[in-house]
Amino acid sequence: MFWLVASTVLAACMATGMIFIRMRAARRPASVRKIILPPLFMSTGALMFFVPMFQVEWAQVAEAISVGILFSLFLIKTSTFEVKEGEVYLKPSRAFVFILFGLLALRIVLKMIIGQNISLGETSGMFFLLAFGMIITWRLAMLYKFLKIEKTMKRSLSGSS
Predict the structure, then answer these.
(1) How distant, in Å, are the alpha carbons of 1, 12, 57, 144 from that of 103?
(2) Mapped to the 3 state alphabet, what secondary structure does the chain carry?
(3) Is residue 74 predicted with pLDDT exceeding 70?
C-alpha cells in the first residue's frame, strides 16, 4: 500500500511539473530538438529492464504500449501549433490540464487493478512502457505537425520572393 501511495504522489507531482513545463514552453518557439529530446531522455528509463524484478512478458509489453498509444490520442488532439511573427509556437490548450490529470487518474485506477495480480516490479515496468508508448506517439505526431507547418512557411516565403 505504501508503494502505491508513494508512486501516486510522485506521478501527481510529475503531472503537475509537466503542466508548468508545457506552459513555459508555449512562450518560446518550438523546434525539432525540443520535440524530440523528451522521449530521448525518457528512453534511458528502459535500463530498468536489465533488473529481473522489472522484466515483463512480451504480451504485457504489447498491452502497455497499446494502451500508451491509445492514451496519446488525447494529447495529440490537444497539441496544436500556431505561427506568430514567423516562428512556430505550441498553442496552449486549456484541455491539456484536464486530460493530463484524467490520464493520471485512469493510470492510478489501472495500477490498483493490475497491481493486485502482478508484482510491483512488473507493474512498474508496464507503466514505464505505457508512458513511453504515450510520449513517443504524441511527440512523433507533434513532430509531423511541426514539420508540416515549417514546410508550408518555407513554401509561402519562397513563393512571395
Answers:
(1) 21, 11, 24, 23
(2) CHHHHHHHHHHHHHHHHHHHHHHHHCCCCCCHHHHHHHHHHHHHHHHHHHCHHHCCCHHHHHHHHHHHHHHHHHHHHHCEEEEECCEEEEECCHHHHHHHHHHHHHHHHHHHHHHCCCCHHHHHHHHHHHHHHHHHHHHHHHHHHHHHHHHHHHHHHHHHC
(3) yes
Domain that holds residue 129: 2-160
Report how many domains make up the chain. Answer: 1
Instruction: Supply the pTM of this predicted model.
Output: 0.83
The phi and psi torsions of 85 (rounded to 5 degrees) equal 50, 45
